[in-house]
Amino acid sequence: GRLNYYGTRQWMHNAAPTVLDGLKFALCLDQIAGPKLYLHFSRNPKDLNLQRLYTLFEETAARMEIPFELVHKKINVSNAEMAWEHEAFAYKKILAATLSDRPVPIPQFTRSDPVAPNVDVPTLERNLLFVSEVLAQYLYGSQVPKLTGNTQPSTRHISSWVQYLSANPRSTPHLPKDSPVYAAFEQTMTKYLSEFQRDDVPNPVEMRTDFKFYGEIQMQMKVHSTKPLSFDLLLFVFICLYLLALNVYFKGFEDVLAVKDTLLGAYFGKPKSQ
């Protein structure tokens, strides 16, 4: 995420050369649950197939009535901070682009989570169908039928994943090796993909980066329930009235009247004699 995409860079560093050589284009998905989508890329492709892919994005967005915009911005090589994930691929001479619902990147160290508890599921479903339509037409030709029925994203399936991922922590300090999130991903990918392989990257704690990663943190937090402030004020008033009642009972009203005159004299001064 917004830690300069060290996870993506570490994966490319450990990937076999044959894997990187086989990458013709990498589509990076940022947060895509917004009403408008932007396709960010760093250089205009000279390859006709990639030009056709960008055209498919625009044509499919127009057909599905999705606000869409291509954003071309060159990489600032003098800046060590990466704005988008596709820039990590660009340094490896791999053509890539980032699909996002944001026109500009968010600042570093802030949240960059494509799944949030308040995500608009119908909009997310529409955008996932949009990406699926584009990739299907690009891979299988323009004659491929529209994705309907079992081939299109399921609202129930997307909602269940949104609820599950938003309820389980996925950051490094809170993601143990035996986390059920890994098992859920493996089970789903094995079910829907013809080929699946899990690549274990080095623990982020052991990575040499500009950031310090910590392992799983386990601690116990204690919460003490206290009375509200109104209870203390009410108790103070009752105590004062109780002490006043005891004073009147044993000494009468003389001391009370004396205290009253003293307080009035201190605030308003003694009355002037005529």
Question: Mind explaining what this structure looks like?
Answer:
With 274 residues, this protein is an alpha/beta fold. The protein has two domains: 6-167, no CATH class; 229-268, no CATH class. The protein has nine helices and four strands. The chain has helices at 6-14, 17-21, 48-63, 86-90, 121-140, 155-167, 180-192, 229-251, 254-268; strands at residues 26-29, 37-41, 68-72, 96-100. Strands 1-4-2-3 form a four-stranded mixed β-sheet. Helix 3 (48-63) links the parallel strand 2 and strand 3. The chain is elongated and about 105 Å long.
Overall pLDDT level: 80
Query: What is the β-strand count?
Result: 4
What's the arrangement of strands in the largest beta sheet? 1-4-2-3
The helix content, as a percent range, equals 40-55%
Rg from alpha-carbon coordinates? 32 Å
SS element count, helices: 9
The total tally of domains equals 2
What amount of the residues lies in strands?
A: 5-15%
Overall 3D form? elongated
Uncertain runs with pLDDT below 50, 5 residues or more? none
List the helices and strands in order. Answer: HHEEHEHEHHHHH
Calculate the terminal CA-CA distance, rounded to whole Å.
84 Å
Computed structural class: alpha/beta
- Specify the biggest β-sheet: 4 strands, mixed
GO biological process, one term: regulation of signal transduction
Membrane topology: Single-pass membrane protein
InterPro entries: Nicalin
Family: Belongs to the nicastrin family.
What characteristics describe this protein?
single chain; 274 residues; alpha/beta; four-stranded mixed beta sheet; 4 strands; 43% helix; transmembrane; glycoprotein; transmembrane helix; Nicalin; membrane
